[in-house]
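Assemble and predict.
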Amino acid sequence: MSIILFSHSRILHEKTDNEKIQGIYIPLLSRTTVYADITNPTTAAVKERYGDRDDPTPLWRKNGPYVTAYGSLQPEIEQRRQALTVFLPQDFAKPNTDAFYFVFDQKWVVHGVKTKDENGLLQWGISLIEESDSQVVDLIVSSVSEHLVEGRVQEILVAVYDDSSLQDDLEKSLKAFEIEPVSFDTLKPNPDVLPLYHHRDFGLIMIATALCAFLVLAASIGYWVTNHLELEKERGEIVRVKNEIRLMQDKKKLGHVSNPDAILNVISGGIPHTPSAIVSAAVEVARKFGTVNGVKIGEASVRRSKRSPGSSKNTKIFNVQVRVDMPDDSLLLDQERMALSIMQNAPWIDYIKRSVLAKDTLNIGVRIK
Amino acid sequence: MTRSSFRKLWLLSLVTMMAITSYAYNSSEELSGKVSIAVRKKDKLQTELRMGNLLTASLAALDERTLNEKGVTRLTLMRYLGIEESDMNFMPQQAVNIKIGSTKVTTRDFTVRETLAYADALKQLDYFYNTQKVRMNMVSINPSKNGYGDIVSLDMNGVVYGIYK
């Protein structure tokens, strides 16, 4: 247990670490004030009545209809970051205790005696005694003897804070009185009384909040950096593409021509395939009918194929006119049979027709993809 | 550090961090907007570049397949077709100006007449076809009156296109 033992003017004994602090205030009768007219007491309201606004925080408690102010909390104690709870010494006494002795730091003895006031109400009288180490045992023993002799005190509580050897000495000395000193750490404040002052330690929560805020800050900065880098990258890309466009425009030929594809389409007209292939395909077929006397190909004879379902829509038919010297005794029927046979074996031939205008001319349709 | 000074430090840190966070977030949103604009601009430029490249490719092809009309002579025409050293009968006609879209294009009909072997005739025709510089309208191959064996008379009508470059 961390302890601060203090009075209105100074800290008497302190043993603290990072855990919550138990404050024990030694009240002075001269500084204790009772108020009967504070109906809804708060620390601020009691402070206004007890002292000025600039004075330290008052240590007060509501006792029935009355508000009792015992003193003020020293700022250096109030400013402790650990959780702090302040009680009076008598708050640690058991309900049936009539007198107590609490020993701190081998020299401070807090002595409390329960008495009845003129109204018959029980109240505690607290005194603080400073003794040297060797005198503490004797002091307590003699005081206990006096109480027992007087007979007004039945139950006496002796507690020693953080000093097992002193506790052992007291145990030996008080054995005759059947009083067993206990360690002050084993005592707990009376659960029926409220502390004179209490503040919590929100340090952990505050640090956690600050950490969360820091993480959010880091995320925001990360988001900003990401966007900034992205923007720089896109701007770099824009500059690069603009340079490429500039280079392209510098190298561009015929810059004044806006429709090159249309002109190229016109130029690409005419005979749609290598002439030798077209001529050879037609002549090879025509030879079967007789001696070839001439070949003519021209652009006007291009049309789409309707011959078979297997032809694609990109297939064109190119008409080739071939003059053929056919034998006089050749029957039309035989010529027709020959034409059918040729077309079966030569899928690149779409049709073989005799010209209407010239009997010795065959119009041969050559398929071109 | 006292309780109140710790609290003040905590508050100060918190307020500072929140202020920086707010500023950073608002700046980031602005930057995000600018990034979107920059991306759209970049896409537009890339489309322009792509279209420009296509156009450039087409213009390059057109440049290859058309004659420069500045100072055209019969010899330049024959050089353009690659037949300046050939002995074929090359008969160009008067140039005619036409408009294809908004571009002025010059067309020249020509006739080539030659007597040669059948195989050479086919090679000659393929040569003209492969240059892609002429539009071949009509080809006629007939047995040569003065020749013998596989000697044929080749007649070809075509068109050469030109642009002022």
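Residues 347 and 367 of chain A are 8 Å apart (CA to CA).
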